[in-house]
Write a structure and sequence with these properties.
single chain, about 500 residues, mainly alpha, about 65% helix, globular
Length: about 500
C-alpha cells in the first residue's frame, strides 16, 4: 500500500539528512583508519561543513511543516498503525527540538574542533604529556558547557549532556546507583583471584589478525556487511545499511586485548545491523535507543559470551592453530583462568569485568565536576592520579596511562562514560533472561560455536525494537522486570567463585 504523499515527503527529507549523516561517518572512519596525517586540517573542514549542512536541514522551518503535515495524515490510519506513526514523529520532534536549540555555526565549530582535537590528543598521549592537549581540552569543555546551556537543564549542566546519550538520566540518580554498586563491588574485588598471563612469548600481529578476523562471522556479523581494521582506540561505526566498520588495536605481549576489543565492537555492530533490518529503514524508530542499550550489546558479547567457558571450549583449538601454539605452551585452564582474572589496572580498556565499573565511576565523578565548574582542566592530571590512588591503590607514572588514556573527551563526549556501566547492568539482565529461555544454549556454544539462538533473541527483544519503546519499557518487556543491578552483581560473584575453585 502506497503511503500518503505527506508521509512520503517527510520521509524523503529525513532520509536525505540520514544519508549525509552516514557520509559524515565515512569521513570520521577514514580519519581514524586510513587518512594520512597531513589531511587532518582539511578533513576537519569537510566534517564541519557536512555537520552544518545536516543541522540546517533538520532545523529548517520547511522540515517542521513536513512533519506537521505528516502528523495530520496519520489520523487516517487504524489505531495500531497510527500509534506507531505517532511514536516515529514524536521521536523525530524530540530530536528536532534539541537541534533547534543549537545554532548552525556552533554545530560546525564543535564538529571541526573535535576532529582537530583527536589528532592533538593522540600526539599528547604518544608523548605522555597532558600539556600538549590541555588548551584544546579547555576549548572543548567551554563548548560543552555552552552546549548544555543551549539545551537547558534544571539541576546541573552535566544533566543536559548526559541526556544526549541516555535520555532522562540524571547525574544525582546515577551517583546513587554507582555508590551502591561500588559498595557491592569492593568485597568482590577483594576476594577475586589474580592469575598470571599464560602467554610466555609474544604473539605476532599477523597471527592475532588471523584469529580476530574470524570472530565477527562466528558471532553472526558476516564479512559481506563488515570489515575489521586497526585504529589508535578501538571503535565501531555504521556507515549505512550493510556497511559496519570495526577496529581494534594489537599488542604482541597482550593478545587478549585485540580479541576482546573485536568482541566488544562486534556487539555494537550486530546491534546496528539489526536496526538496519527493521521495516522502512531508515526512519526515526530504526535508530539505537540509547548508548546504555548500545553498550549492553557490546558488553554482553564481550563478557557474558566472550569470557564464558563454552565460548572458549569452542575457540581454544582455533586459537592454538592461529597463534601457532601447542596445548603445552598454552594450557586451556591457564588461559581460561587468566581470561577471567581480576587485577586492578591503570587502563580502562584493559580492565577485567570485575574492576571495570570502578574505572567508569572515577571518570563519571571527574567529568561531572569538570562540566559543573568544580574542577579546572589544568588540575585534571593531579585529580585523576589522586582518585586512582584512592580507588585502586595505584600510582600513575605518566599522563598516557592516566588522564590521557581515553579518546572520549577529545570527541567532546562528556556524559558518555556512565553508559558503559548502565550497559553492564542491562547486559547481565538480558543474558540471564536469555539463558532461562534457552537453557541448552551453552551446549550449542561449546560444541558448534553456534550463537544463533542468542542473536535471534537479541534481534527479537532488543534490535527490532529500535526506538519504539522507552528504555524502561524495553528492559521490562525483554526481561519481565525493571532494570536491576543485582544481575550484574550475581554474575560477577558467580564468575569469581567459578575461577576461584580451580585456583
Amino acid at each position: 500500500m502506497a503511503l500518503p504523499q505527506a508521509l512520503e515527503n517527510y520521509r524523503k527529507q529525513y532520509r536525505k539528512i540520514k544519508l549525509f549523516q552516514d557520509i559524515s561517518s565515512v569521513l570520521h572512519w577514514d580519519s581514524e583508519v586510513m587518512m594520512p596525517e597531513e589531511g587532518r586540517e582539511y578533513r576537519s573542514t569537510q566534517i564541519a561543513a557536512v555537520a552544518e549542512l545536516t543541522h540546517e536541514w533538520m532545523t529548517d522551518p520547511s522540515f517542521l511543516e513536513l512533519i506537521q503535515s505528516a502528523k495530520l495524515t496519520t489520523k487516517e490510519f487504524p489505531e495500531s498503525e497510527r500509534s506507531l506513526w505517532n511514536r516515529e514523529l514524536e521521536i523525530l520532534m524530540e530530536e528536532k527540538e534539541k537541534a533547534d536549540k543549537l545554532p548552525s555555526e556552533f554545530v560546525a565549530e564543535f564538529a571541526k574542533l573535535t576532529n582537530l582535537a583527536h589528532a592533538e590528543w593522540a600526539e599528547a598521549k604518544k608523548e605522555k604529556n597532558f600539556k600538549l592537549f590541555s588548551d584544546r581540552l579547555e576549548e572543548l569543555v567551554h563548548l560543552s558547557k555552552k552546549q548544555a546551556d543551549y539545551f537547558g537543564y534544571t539541576t546541573e549542566p552535566y544533566d543536559a549532556l548526559l541526556d544526549t546519550y541516555e535520555k532522562g538520566a540524571k547525574a544525582d540518580q546515577i551517583q546513587i546507583l554507582f555508590s551502591d554498586l561500588k559498595k557491592s563491588l569492593i568485597p568482590i574485588v577483594a576476594k577475586a583471584p589474580k592469575f598470571e598471563s599464560p602467554f610466555k612469548k609474544p604473539i605476532p600481529i599477523a597471527n592475532q589478525t588471523k584469529f580476530c578476523n574470524r570472530l565477527p562471522s562466528i558471532l553472526g556479523l558476516t564479512t559481506k556487511e563488515s570489515r575489521l581494521d586497526i585504529s589508535n582506540h578501538p571503535f565501531s561505526t555504521s556507515l549505512g545499511k550493510g556497511d559496519k566498520r570495526i577496529t581494534t588495536r594489537y599488542s604482541e605481549s597482550d593478545p587478549l586485548s585485540s580479541i576482546f576489543g573485536v568482541l566488544h565492537e562486534t556487539g555494537h555492530s550486530l546491534y546496528e545491523s539489526g536496526l538496519s533490518k527493521m521495516p522502512n529503514w531508515p526512519n526515526p524508530l530504526t535508530e539505537y535507543l540509547s548508548l546504555g542499550i548500545h553498550e549492553s550489546q557490546s558488553r554482553l558479547w564481550e563478557n557474558q559470551v566472550g569470557r564464558s567457558l563454552p565460548f572458549w571450549e569452542f575457540m581454544y583449538p582455533i586459537l592454538l592453530n592461529d597463534f601457532e601454539l601447542s596445548e603445552s605452551e598454552l594450557p586451556f585452564q591457564e588461559l581460561y583462568k587468566y581470561i577471567n582474572s581480576t587485577e586492578k589496572s591503570k587502563i580502562r580498556v584493559e580492565a577485567d569485568q570485575v574492576t571495570y565499573n570502578l574505572h567508569i565511576i572515577l571518570r563519571f565523578e571527574i567529568e561531572r565536576d569538570l562540566i559543573n565548574g568544580k574542577t579546572k582542566v589544568k588540575d585534571l592530571p593531579e585529580i585523576w592520579n589522586t582518585k586512582m590512588k584512592e580507588s585502586f591503590g595505584m600510582t600513575i607514572e605518566n599522563d598516557a596511562e592516566g588522564v590521557l588514556q581515553d579518546i572520549h573527551w577529545s570527541m567532546g563526549a562528556f556524559g558518555y562514560f556512565p553508559t558503559y556501566t548502565l550497559g553492564n547492568i542491562f547486559s547481565a539482565q538480558f543474558f540471564k533472561k536469555f539463558t532461562e529461555e534457552y537453557p541448552d544454549s551453552h551446549n550449542k556454544f561449546a560444541s558448534k560455536g553456534d550463537f544463533s539462538d542468542l542473536l535471534s533473541w537479541l534481534r527479537k527483544n532488543i534490535h527490532s525494537k529500535g526506538k519504539i519503546l522507552t528504555i524502561e519499557n524495553l528492559v521490562s518487556e525483554a526481561t519481565g522486570e525493571p532494570a536491576n543491578a543485582k544481575y550484574l552483581i550475581s554474575y560477577l560473584e558467580e564468575k569469581v567463585k567459578e575461577v576461584s575453585i580451580s585456583k
